[in-house]
Structures are given as C-alpha cells and as structure tokens.
Design brief:
Shape: elongated
Distance between the termini: 49 Å
Number of helices: 41
Number of strands: 36
Length: 1064
C-alpha cells in the first residue's frame, strides 16, 4: 500500500512558495512518506517545460525526478523516489441557471503529451499563462466535455467540494446537486475531493454522494504542506491502475484526513470580528455578524447540514477506512508547548525523521516504545492521542485554520518528569474532540508499505489457505489454485517467508510459464520490503531460460532457434522426404516424440526425424525441446556441479498443469538435491496438450511423493459472482469433482451473450462497444439511449479469439475508428519467408555464432547459390564466429566481394538505434506493406534489437506483442485464448464463440476436454464485464451455461449508410 497526494500547486500559481519546484516537491514527498504526488498546474507552459527538463518517465503514465536534480534527505529507512502524476486545477467562473458559479476542478492526465494537447485547447478559451491555476469563463460541464474529447482517459474531480466560495457545493457560488452542475456528463464524474474542512463522516450524511470515491488531497501551496491529506492506494504505481482505483474503487483503501475542525472553513464566522459560530447559532443570528452587522461566512459544516438527508453518525456499509493525521511539527508543538510554526518545532521534526523514518510512518505506525525512546514521553503520548482521537479542537472559520490540542501545560510538565505515560491521557479529564473512527475501523486501513514488522509481513493480505501454503513446512507442497485466487501473490509471499526464515535468496528458484510472468514476479519481489534488496539474487525464469543458463555455465557452444527457424528446417526435411503433412504437424509429432510420449513413427518419419536432428547439429543449434533434453541428460550423467544446483534448493513452479513429461523430469531432478518443492496450478486451466502437457501431472506428483501436502485456494478475488457462476456452470460439466471456487466480490452485471448476423457485424459491434465504454467516441448512435456502465480506458478491455486469423477483421474495424490496440501472441506473419529472413539478418548480427541465421541471411544477397553454399561451409569451420570474420571470408570470393548485405552498417548501429528504426530501414525493400507494418509494430515495443530478438526467440504466446498503426500504452488488447493465459482485464469480449471455432474444428474428439478448458480460461480473464459474441451458429458450449447468469441480446444491424462512411 502507498499514499498519493494528487492535488498540489507549483511556484507558478498565486500565493505559493518559491520552493514549489520538482526538486523540493520530490524532497518533501520523501520526507512525508508519499509514493505519488501530482505535478499541479499542467496548464502553465513554463511549468510544463520545467517538468520535461527535470523529470523522466517511470512506470506507465508516471514520472520521477532525474537523479542529477535530487536533493539529499537525512531520513532513516529506505527512500523510494516518489512518482509525479500530471495534474492541474482549473477555476471556472460562469453564469448558470441565473446564478454566478465559481467552481474549482482537478484534472489528472495520463502523460505530459496529453497535458500539452489539453492546454493548447484551453489557450483558445482564456489566459492560461498568468496563473498556474487559470481562471476560465467555461462551464464545468463544458470543461469536462473538452477534457473527454482531448483525453478520454483523463480523470475529472470536482475540487474541495465544500469550500464556501469556489466549489461544487459552495454555500455562495455552488450547486445543490452534482447533476445540476454536470448535467448529461454526470456519469463521467467518479470521484469528489472532500477538502480539508470536511471528512468522510460528514459526507456520509448525503446519500447523493454514495456512488462516488471520496478522495482527499493537500491542495498544498508549499512543499511542507504536502500530505496534510492523502489517499491510501493498493495498486500498481501506474496511471491506469490509479485511474481505475479512483473510478471503480479497485485498490482504493481509504484516506488520510485532516481534522475537519482544523480546516479554515469548518464553522461559520467572521474573522475580522473574531466571531466563530455553530450552524445553529448562525441560523438564530439570521446570518448576520453580531459585532459588525455584516454577513457571516457560512462554513462547511453548515452547508453539509443544509444538504444532508441522513443523521449525523450514519455510515454506509461499504465506506472505505480513514485515519486522522496532522503535520508532525504541529503535533510536536501541541505535545510540548512550543510554537507550531517555529524553528524549534521544525528542527525537532527533522531530527525525528533522521532517527525513525518518514512523517507518515511516525504518525501512523512507529511503535510507541520507539517514539518514547527517540522523541521523548511528551511527543510519544501526543502521537498516541492523535491516533485514537483524544484531542481538543478549536474549529477553523472564515479562512482561519483551526487548532489541535493534545497535551495541556500541566500534562507536559508531568510527562517531562518521566511519569509513566501509559494510559494517562485517558485519566486526565481532558476534553476530547468530535467522535473519530473506532479502533477497529482505523485498523481497516492497511499499514504503511515498506515499514511492516518483518515477522508478520507474509501474513498480511492472505486468506487462511494462502497463509497455510506460504508457511507450510512440508518437503513437497502442491497447491491447486483456481483463476483469480492469488497464485502469484502466494508464490511471492512464499519466497518472502523463506527468506525471513533464513533461506539464502541464491538458493531459491521460481519457474514461470512465460517471460512476462517472470518479470512480474521479479517486480513484486522488488517491491516487498523483505526481499527488495535481494530480489535479484532469486532465480526466476522459464524452463527454457533456466536450461539455457545451465548449459552456458557448462561451457556449451550453441545457439537456440525459435519456432520459425525450426519451421525452416522442417520445410526442407518435409520436401526432401516427400512427406504429406504440414510443417506444424511435423514439428508437433517430433516434439511429442522428444517429450517421451508414446507415438509410433513409420520408417520414413523416423528417417526424417533424424535428418532434422542432423541439420540442427550441422549448424550447432538447439530447438526448444533439445534445450531441455540436453540439461536433463547432463544431470543424469552428473555433469552439473553441486554449486550450479544450489539454486534449486528451494524450487517453486508456477502453472504446473502445463508442464510436459521432460519438464516434469527436470523438476524431479532439480528437487533431488534440494530441500523443498512447491508447485501451484489448476487442472481446469490445462490448455497445452498439443505441446505434450498433461494435467494428470498432479496425480503423478502425488504418486511420486506420497507425503506431499495438498492445499486448495478456492476464493476468487478477480471476478464478479456472475462471471464465476457462468464459468463454473460450464466447467462443472467437464470435471468429475464438484466446482468449489467462489467469488469474493460483490454482485456485478450479468454475462452478456450477444449474437450478430455476420463476422463483419460482429467486428463492428466490438468497435462500437469499445467506443462506448471509453466514452470518448461518437460511434454508438444506436446505443445512445442505453445506460452507461462506467467509463473505461482502452487498456481495461481485451478481445479474445480462438485463432490469429480472426484478428484481421477486428484490426480493420478498430483502425477505421482510431481505437488504439495491442496484439499479443505469435502472429502468423512471422512464418512468412521474407519476414523470417529479416529476423534472421538481425539474429546473426546479435549472435554471429548463429550459423542457421547466416544461411537465411545469405538468401537476401544476389550471390549464386553455389557460392552461397561455399561461404556457409567455410564459415561453419570458423573457430571464433563474428561479423568481421564472415566479411573477411566474402573478400576471398570473387562473386561475393563488395557485397556485405548491409551487415557492417547495421552492426555499427546495433547498440545505438532503437529496434523499430533498424527494422524500418531493413524492410524498406524486402517486405510488402502489410507485413512491414506488422513487424515494425512489434519492434516498436522494444528499446534494443537484442531485446527484440531475444523475445521473438524465447517468448511464449503471451510474451509477444505488436502495436497497431500508432502505438499507445493505453490500448485495447487483442489476443488468442492461449495468449490470454495468466492475464486479467476489467472487460473481456470473447469474439467468435461459435460452431467450428470454439471448440476448434480441427481438433479430434479426444481434445474436447482441453478445448473446454480454453473456453473456461477465456471467461475467467474477466474482472467486471464479460461479453460472449457469436454469429448465427453459436458454439455448442453456450448451451452448457447457466442462464441465471446470462443476459441475451442482439447486436444491432449496422446502418448501411454509416457502414459506407466509417468502415468500407
């Protein structure tokens, strides 16, 4: 969990500190303990230039201060660099419904590019140069519409909604309802900023606010004021994740709150006359100051009571937690009797930071014993009272801040005399403030990430079954975990637990199914306080990557070829032996043979198999299967050193249901010399039988290890009950044991079963539906009257299909509507001979020992075939392969001399230029437009060419990606059902749930169980919404769904005139 303060200001706003610059904002965010802060003032051009100069991109949509600008901070504990999220406040002053309205709104944006675009549009409407918080004569509703038009993924939050003069509900210039202000665009408001003068209990009195996220920010005008209020989030630190938390509550844990009495507009009053009144007294005085006779400024509490339709003390059942905070110097002053704004309080505050840690850690979590030892008994008691609400409050009014009292002068004297302080605050008879949350509710807000006691870290946020798996002491453990039950979390916590118990990180290996899963696990470990420093020492990787490392340690000289290179050799062998089978079928037969499956081959196929292996040996390359088999053979012969096997002392295996027999044998061999084996998976998600995987491996494991401990994870945290109910009703028909997985989330929308007339109308429906969900397109003419389900970002949405061929029509429709998308999976275009040669060219540059890549590269050049064969044969005998060695050989060939094929020019740029740039230039002459665009779309997602080639070679189905015509990090995901394994999305559209596709027509009856698993995997990727889309012949699987969870509808026919305009 982390804290985010998203509403602040720069030095370019009026009445702000000169220190409101990136360097000092970064410094004070660290001192406060904030993980994310807003940039503030994105509309100001000079501020944007300064941000571009001093910040650098971090996670998606967030920025961090460049190291050269970072200021030193003397503070105990780890100091993580805070992230900046682009934000700004805009003041709108306009006349509506006969009244002058003055409303401030906070806007959050996904990046500085979006800020530039929106600022340029606002420049046309008013002056955005003179003030960081510009004043525009623009209706708030129109400002929201403009933001949605320019940046649909932006977040629009009415700011400090109760401030009397400048807010949504302000007593003098606001509205009585949200709908009056934003009209038809009200559904695009998801969060409201409550402001310093109100807190959640006050806002709970209005039922009209129930559907909104009540957020809190500091609205800081100086860096020292950061974190007066903040939001507690448990999400990835990315803009999409934070946006989702603010829109949907996913990961929104609660808020840190100023005492509302301390806000400067809490009570009614007249500051010049020193008059402070409760709302009832103002009513009695008829709103007139009893001293000067002028109008009294009505405060927040008065306005809340005026609009409230519930009694004080009401609490919604799903209300997030909150905790009270006050600035540390003020707490020190109120606990010791010194001046709150003085040098002494500031100095003592800095000393505590140096001794204990960040301000929020001190206020919320530091043990009282540590505080007493390092801060003294008075401050320790003051912080204790602050935590439990034993405070005296003098309410603020008419622009004057209120005051927090903690210890009286007499109490300070007693505590300074070292009188036992435990419990004295409760005996003092001191007046307490307004009721604060009960202790159990305070504890509902998660503890500060990074400062948890080491002995309990692995227990937090785990259910009983997860905890049992994490803490198991059995030598072998098998965890059966359904979709969304927290497999990765359990694995990560297991590693944390092992390290806490004294296991060396170098002795732990986690095997994942994809490179992407390995990266995710690595990142999670780096975020855990217990494993942050040693995360890199834990070995995490796929079977193929782990085996590659082991063989390299053994000094083996070879190159590894991917599926497409293996297909080149297979094509030749099939032609040589006149086999009547496809390349795919040939390679699958060979793979099953290598994986020890009982497959009978006739003499011709045996001979072809041997020829394939001979070709691999000639070029000194290994395919995926041989990579594993070589390691298995080396282990059986004892060729691996004990030191090299220490990393497998504690072995964890993810996605166990998808391992094949060779991988199972590797696991057993690795575990032979180890101390612990921990495997996790789900037999219902076994989808790789065509690669030799068999979900019966669970039963085999139990036979081989009779004392193995079995644990089931049955609580799904990902999906709504409707999605789990629908998926469960289906998979129950394909399993013998009862389906026990249960959804922990609240009820959601029913699963939508949509029928369309044709594949085209199906694809058009997808484009229209996505446009409607993001709220930024004007495509849904026929659906305009339907109730919105909530605005989504493009990256929230995934479209899944059975085969790659189905993507073509989808891509065309999305391109026509300018919807950004990302295609995941191994595209068929990679098998095109011309594409293979381009990739081979760069493979050879990255690894000159890859002789097969050289052979494919030579096909580019205008050299006679006999001469090419001679060059290749000579190069096979080169002891130290290199590009220079090859070019030297070419000089000895009369017909090849002078033709370097571009190798030398590209070699010099290999480490300098991006992969995308190199692919663009190399493909200009060799590829047709379609394949070229797709290959460039794939290359643009990688910084360097070696990274690109590595991913193409070793990437599993879910690892490979390419962008559409224009790449955007906020993009719809298109992928096959296989590529979707292990992923999750708020919205999933299963495209083509129809006869002959699901289940796939090419599969025999014996494979129907796996096809059922694949359909189940697809459905359970959905978190909030699931749409099953089919044409006139639906899949037979649809008949197996429980209709109680399904809503049937018809996709509207596309208007022929619109179709001509927008699609064809």
């Amino acid at each position: 969990m982390y804290f985010a303060d998203l509403h602040i200001h720069s030095k370019y706003s009026r009445a702000t500190s000169r220190e409101c610059v990136p360097e000092y904002l970064d410094l004070w965010a660290r001192k406060k303990g904030l993980a994310v802060i807003g940039t503030g003032d994105f509309t100001h051009p000079q501020w944007r230039r300064e941000l571009l100069e001093k910040l650098e991109p971090a996670e998606e949509g967030l920025y961090r201060l460049k190291k050269e600008h970072s200021l030193p901070c003397n503070m105990a504990g780890e100091q993580d660099s805070p992230r900046f999220l682009v934000s700004g406040e805009i003041s709108s002053i306009y006349k509506k419904n006969g009244k002058v309205r003055k409303v401030h709104n906070l806007i959050l944006l996904p990046d500085l590019m979006a800020a530039e675009k929106l600022a340029h549009r606002l420049e046309m409407l008013g002056n955005v140069h003179s003030d960081g918080r510009p004043i525009l004569g623009l209706d708030s509703r129109d400002l929201l519409e403009l933001m949605l038009e320019v940046c649909p993924t932006g977040i629009f939050i009415p700011a400090h909604i109760w401030t009397p003069h400048f807010s949504l509900f302000g007593a003098y210039s606001g509205f009585d309802t949200i709908e009056e202000c934003f009209e038809d665009l009200t559904p695009h408001i998801h969060a409201l900023e409550t402001g310093l003068s109100s807190d959640p209990p006050m806002n709970w009195q209005l039922s009209a606010l129930d559907g909104y996220r009540l957020v809190s920010n500091s609205d800081a005008h100086s860096p020292a004021k950061l974190a007066r209020e903040a939001n507690a989030l448990e999400t990835e630190r990315t803009y999409p994740a934070i946006a989702r938390a603010l829109k949907e509550g996913d990961g929104f844990c609660g808020t840190l709150e100023f005492f509302p009495e301390e806000g400067k507009y809490h009570y009614d009053g007249h500051r010049n006359c020193g008059v402070c009144l409760k709302p009832g007294d103002t009513v009695k005085a008829q709103g007139i100051c009893p001293v000067c006779g002028k109008r009294i400024t009505v405060g927040v509490l008065h306005r809340v009571e005026e609009l409230a339709d519930r009694a004080e003390g009401y609490r919604p059942s799903d209300a997030p937690a909150f905790r009270r905070v006050a600035p540390l110097p003020e707490v020190i002053a109120a606990s010791t009797g010194i001046a709150p704004g003085g040098v002494k309080a500031a100095r003592q505050s800095d000393e505590l930071l140096a001794k204990i840690g960040s301000e929020l850690y001190i206020l919320l979590e530091a043990p009282l014993t540590e505080l007493e030892q390092k801060a003294g008994p008075c401050i320790a008691e003051g912080i204790r009272r602050l935590r439990v609400g034993e405070v005296h409050l003098s309410p603020g009014f008419d622009g004057e801040y209120g005051k927090v009292g903690l210890l009286t002068a007499e109490e300070i004297e007693r505590f300074s005399g070292q009188i036992e302080f435990q419990g004295m605050g409760r005996q003092s008879g001191m007046e307490t403030g307004r009721p604060v949350p009960a202790p159990d509710r305070v504890e509902a807000l998660p503890r500060l990430a990074g400062r948890r006691p080491k002995t309990t870290a692995h227990r937090e946020q785990l259910n009983l079954q997860q905890l049992a798996a994490v803490q198991s002491r059995a030598a072998e453990i098998v965890v059966t975990a359904g979709p969304g039950t927290g497999k990765t979390r359990t694995l990560v916590r297991r590693i944390c637990y092992l390290i806490e118990k004294g296991v060396r990180a170098e002795e732990i290996t986690a095997v994942t199914f994809t490179n992407q899963a390995a990266k995710e696990m690595q990142l999670r470990l780096e975020k855990e306080p217990e494993t942050r420093k040693m995360a890199r020492a834990v070995t995490i990787g796929t079977f193929h990557n782990l085996c590659l490392q082991l063989l390299e340690h053994m000094g083996k000289n070879f190159s590894v070829i991917g599926e497409d290179e293996a297909a080149v050799i297979a094509e030749e062998v099939i032609g040589r032996f006149a086999l009547k089978m496809s390349v795919k079928a040939f390679l699958q037969r060979l793979s099953k043979r290598k994986n020890q499956l009982d497959i009978k081959m006739d003499a011709a196929l045996e001979e072809a198999f041997q020829s394939y292996q001979d070709t691999l040996a000639r070029y000194e390359v290994l395919d995926y299967d041989d990579l594993l088999l070589n390691v298995l053979e080396a282990m059986e012969k004892g060729h691996l050193k004990t030191e090299e096997l220490k990393q497998f002392t504690y072995l964890l295996v993810d996605e166990f249901q998808d391992i094949n027999p060779v991988q199972y044998q590797l696991i057993k061999k690795w575990h032979e010399a180890g101390a612990n084996l921990f495997v996790i998976g789900d037999p219902d998600q076994a989808i790789y039988g065509f690669r030799g995987a068999d979900s019966a491996c669970f039963q085999t494991l139990k036979v081989d290890f009779p004392k193995i401990e079995e644990i089931q994870l049955l609580q799904n945290y990902r999906s709504t009950p409707e999605i789990i109910g629908c998926a469960g009703s289906f998979i129950q028909r394909h399993r013998e044991a009862p389906f026990l997985l249960r959804a922990e989330r609240r009820d959601g929308a029913p699963v939508r079963l949509v029928s369309a007339e044709t594949s085209l109308s199906s694809a058009i429906f997808v484009a229209k539906e996505i446009a409607g969900m993001v709220g930024g397109m004007d495509m849904l003419e026929a659906h305009a009257s339907k109730k919105r389900r909530g605005e989504r970002s493009f990256s929230d949405i995934a479209v899944l299909y059975r085969t790659n061929q189905q993507a073509a029509l989808l891509e065309e429709c999305l391109q026509k509507e300018d919807i950004p998308y990302l295609v995941r999976g191994r595209d068929d275009f990679l098998s095109d001979p011309a594409v293979r040669r381009v990739i081979a060219f760069f493979r050879f540059l990255c690894n000159p020992a890859d002789r097969l890549a050289l052979r494919m590269t030579l096909e580019y050049e205008e050299i006679p075939e006999r001469e090419r064969e001679w060059l290749l044969e000579q190069y096979l005998n080169v002891k130290t392969p290199s590009v220079a060695a090859y070019l030297q050989l070419k000089k000895t060939s009369e017909k090849a001399r002078g033709l370097d094929g571009g190798l030398e020019a590209f070699r010099l740029r290999l480490k300098k230029d991006r992969a995308e740039t190199l692919v663009k230039e190399r493909t200009e002459e060799f590829l047709g437009m379609k394949w070229r665009e797709q290959l460039i779309g794939m290359a643009e997602l990688y910084k360097t060419m070696p990274e690109f080639i590595q991913n193409i070679t070793f990437g599993e189905e879910g690892d490979l990606m390419r962008g559409g015509r224009s790449y955007s990090p906020d993009a719809v995901s298109l992928m096959t059902l296989h590529a979707a394994k292990g992923l999750e999305f708020p919205v999933v559209i299963l495209y083509g749930v129809e006869k002959n596709l699901i289940p796939f027509r090419a599969y025999r009856e014996t494979d129907q169980e796996e096809e059922g698993h694949l359909f189940y995997v697809g459905m359970t990727r959905a978190m909030d919404e699931l749409i099953l889309l089919h044409t006139s012949e639906p899949s037979p699987y649809i008949q197996e769904l429980d209709t109680a969870y399904v809503e049937v509808e018809q996709a509207l026919k596309p208007n022929p005139r619109i179709k001509q305009l927008t699609f064809f």
